[in-house]
Amino acid sequence: MEGIDMGKPKIAITIRSFGEGGRALERLWDQVSLTYHNTSSRRLTEDELVAVLRDAEGVIAGTEPFTSRVLESSPLLRAISRVGSGTDSIDHGAARERRIAILTTREAPVRAVAEHTMALTLACLKQIPQHDRAMRDGKEGSVPGRMLQGRSVGIIGLGRIGHQVARFLEPFGCRILYFDILPAKDVGAAWEQKETLREVLEESDILSLHATPTVSGKPILDEEAFHSIKQGVIIINTSRGSLIDEDALLRAIRTGTVAGAGLDVFRTEPYRGQLLACPQVIATPHVASNTRESRDAMEYEAVENLLEALEGGGP
User: Which residues of the chain have pLDDT under 50?
Assistant: First the structure.
């Protein structure tokens, strides 16, 4: 770690495994004084954040818990630059009260997350992990998969990633439905906008979630939603774990209402719950955006956002 230069803004890097590509760190060295760099390969706790942020004016962050206690214990902090787009782990009210800017990397992870969404979708339809396990266990016979062609795919949340997923789906010959509370731009000519969430639930063979968390924190797919859902649906979630009532999903899988689920995000992570015992569930540990290319781009964008904010120009 470089020595602290009192004439430069002091920043901490609390996200784990930052700078492995080198480009983002190289951008930082001449611009800031680095007070802390997390090289532990694990997510920091609240107590650890309190300890390492006391002198920091800015922070390169992951999904660490930036609670009101952490922010109140960081008197110099002016900006939190998140490597990624989710800010669920940050207390927004406390940040507003202390005039701490919250910055995200919205563009860099789009294609990587959309590709991961497609991978989970195809893996669920073709039952690739199940076939792999059966072969390794020396079992014969197989359950037939399903085609993506001709399926009705409901996209809940047509932002950057939802758009990219829809574009990926077009060559497969899917019927694309979408629902969003905000007006959508650059919509495909054949995409069908639905006025209510229930219409998408009732008509979709596959549901792909790309919405932001609700203000109340209430899941979009709750017990009531599962009563409206199409029988045999496949659910894909690469957005936020809070969008699904996991207990309701578990019941829907056990009754056969939900035929399969591809989940990259969970309400509590790392996830150790009962969904992992369901062979119909394909789970990945919040890695949709974690490709070498997108990670490098996100880290660099996070650095640029932070430097701009600390210079007073705003994100």
Answer: 1-3, 313-315
Quick one: pLDDT at residue 86? 81
Would you call 240 a catalytic residue per the annotation?
Answer: yes
Please state, in angstroms and rounded to a whole number, the distance separating the CA atoms of residues 232 and 230.
Answer: 6
- Cβ contact 112:289 at 8 Å: yes
- Contact assessment for residue 253 and residue 278, using Cβ atoms and an 8 Å cutoff: yes
Domain containing residue 52: CATH number: 3.40.50.720
Query: Are residue 121 and residue 77 in the same domain, yes or no?
Result: no
The total domain count for the chain is 2
Catalytic residue among 115, 240, 246, 295: 240
Cα-only R_g, the chain: 21
2 is catalytic: no
pTM for the structure as a whole: 0.84
Residue range of the domain that includes 256: 110-283
DSSP-assigned letter for residue 61: E
Name the burial class of residue 149, with classes exposed (0-12), middle (13-18) and buried (19+) by CB atoms within 10 angstroms of its CB.
exposed
155 shares its domain with 198: yes
Integer Cα distance of 84 and 100 in angstroms: 18
* Selected catalytic residue, list 37, 116, 151, 286: 286
pLDDT for 51: 97
Task: Look at residue 315 in the predicted model and tell me its pLDDT.
Answer: 45
Residue 211 shares a structural domain with residue 130? yes
Cα 111 to Cα 302: distance, rounded to the nearest angstrom: 17
269 catalytically annotated: yes
* CB proximity list for 299: less than 8 A, separation 6 or greater: 18, 19, 21, 23, 24, 60, 83
Q: What is the pLDDT of residue 5?
A: 54
CA dist 89 and 271 (Å) reads: 16
Q: From residue 268, how far is each of 153, 218, 276, 286 by CA, in Å?
A: 27, 15, 13, 11
Q: Specify whether the CB–CB gap between 100 and 79 falls below 8 A.
A: yes
Catalytic choice (20, 170, 269, 311): 269
